[in-house]
Write a structure and sequence with these properties.
Strands 1, 2, 3, 4, 5, 8, 11, 12, 13 and 14 form a ten-stranded mixed beta sheet that branches. Strands 6-7 form a two-stranded antiparallel ribbon. Helices cover 21% and strands 25% of the residues. It has six helices and 14 strands.
Amino acid sequence: MLGTGPKDALTDVSGLLVGHHHEIDPAAELGSGAATGCTVIRALGGAVAAVDVRGGGPGTRETDLLDPSHSVQQVNAVLLTGGSAYGLAAADGVMRWLEEHGHGIAMGSPDQVVPIVPAAVIFDLPVGDWSIRPTADFGYRAAAAARADFATGSVGAGVGARAGVLKGGVGTASTVIEGGPADGITVGALIVTNPVGSVFDPRTGLPWGVGSEGPDAYRMRKPDVHEVWNANALAPKGTALNTTIGVVGTDVDLSAASCKRVAVASHDGLARAIRPAHSPLDGDTIFALSTGTRKVVTETAMPKAFSSDLPVLDAVCAVAADVVERAIVHALLDATSIAGIATYRQIFPSAFAP
């Protein structure tokens, strides 16, 4: 059985905090003002981490470091940012904040630390002023702003996000597993939705991601057929580079190799909610974090060739795909229009009619 976490957010996972920083200028609608930002996921005390990159055009930092065979096994934060490759500069500010607060790999005296901050970008440069991108100051402010309660929609790294023909953004979701060897484990996701692919079914107008639970779970109904026709007539996105990025976290104690399997499985949820996904024009990247605040002792008998915690990992992987799917739907439903990009709610108002 599955139950939604208390906040239905990534921060239901103990030890994870989320902070945003962005700039939005009214002139962005004319292409002359700022419309970009970044989002930082801080791991209190560090988190075991892995990453899986499926898109053909990724923009990343420190992903090689997360190979389970490599020496560094924990990260202090993950940066998700707009600005394409330019936006990776925001990671410098995240590192600066972490260093000032003593977070990182201790390399000598207490004030000598090296923070570990993997990062991934979306391509949002055509939204607003092309020359305005997240800087180190963006990353510093987002890290400083990290907390358990955070906004979703057109915020942080989702400010300039565009999901196919619609406005994209930041979405989140969480699940607490009930029963079985993984009972009580929390799994959460935060996704920045900015794909080249479609996020809604052109036949029904419903988001692809409502397929697993049905529209009732989102208090929606099938939109009016005329709205569906109008949506299908919208001009294509018109940019060559895109990308959906995010973080999946869990409180159960996992190894780096197990986190890698969670990251891999998480992409199933992305593929359910976005069609096509993982295209040569996307840089789809998902990080998996384990805070290790929950220890689980399994009594399930497994063949000697397998780890005894495999049933727990299997359950976490299945839920990881579900929370990613729901987070993408929430990103669409929570988005507000920026730079004239229409939102799902604007295009399909009848889906929410009483």
